[in-house]
Design brief:
CATH architecture: 2-Layer Sandwich
Number of strands: 4
Strand content: 5-15%
Radius of gyration: 12 Å
Structural class: alpha+beta
CATH topology: Alpha-Beta Plaits
Strand order of the largest sheet: 1-4
CATH class: Alpha Beta
């Protein structure tokens, strides 16, 4: 199993999760993070760090977010590794509770 970054991360990109990851499995896109499923060791230390509850264990991903399992794997192949916390996006607070953000994902 692995962990998945879901839709809540889009247009927020809080990076609190990055510093606690023991294997550097996070990848950074323009407005979202993803987890490389080949690197994740399923330790779950990132889950409580996410202020928007975007990180889920694969078996806990809600049905309406299942597309993010494949999306994390796909984007992790091309996005660069992120290993240090950075500031969230400037308007993250405005977007943190907005549903249905997939159309805003920047690749």
């Amino acid at each position: 199993m692995t962990h998945i970054v879901t839709e809540s991360c889009i247009r927020c990109k809080y990076t609190d999760c990055v510093d606690v990851c023991p294997v550097d499995c996070f990848r950074e896109g323009p407005n979202m993070l993803v987890i490389d499923p080949d690197e994740c060791i399923d330790c779950a230390v990132c889950i409580p760090e996410c202020p928007v509850e975007a990180i889920k264990a694969e078996e806990d991903v809600p049905q309406n977010q299942m597309k993010f399992v494949a999306l994390n794997a796909e984007l992790a192949r091309t996005w660069p590794s992120i290993t240090r916390t950075k500031p969230a996006l400037a308007d993250a607070e405005d977007w943190k509770d907005v549903p249905d953000k997939l159309q805003h994902l920047q690749r």
